[in-house]
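Friendly challenge for the regulars: who can give me the structure tokens for this chain first? No prize, just bragging rights.
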Amino acid sequence: MLPRKYRLSKSSEIEELKNGGRLFSGEDLSIIVAKSASNETTRFTFLVSTKVSKKATERNRIRRMLSSMVYELVDQVDKGSLVLFLSRKTIVEANKSDVKSQTRKLLTRAGLLK
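First reply, four minutes later:
Bragging rights claimed.
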């Protein structure tokens, strides 16, 4: 699980990120990135809509999968950003290795990986 200091949980910050962030899209997921007001650690949040799956267990599995992938990469990520992961319907059938490579590719395209 991603430690609390790396999690973005305030709904006001998430809405601000949705409205003012830069979007990077992949096959199964997209990310929205914005600079943080303070130059602290980069924080992440994961949004899995009921449009992706009606089953809460599947949505939670996807959130946990994304969270664990970000946890593995958190030491390599530059500080001072807010990142929102948006998943698509196709992520339900996707392999974990495919999603991991997409996560790495999107973070690199956003300029967050060292």
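The chain has one domain: 4-109. The mean pLDDT is 93. Your move, everyone else.
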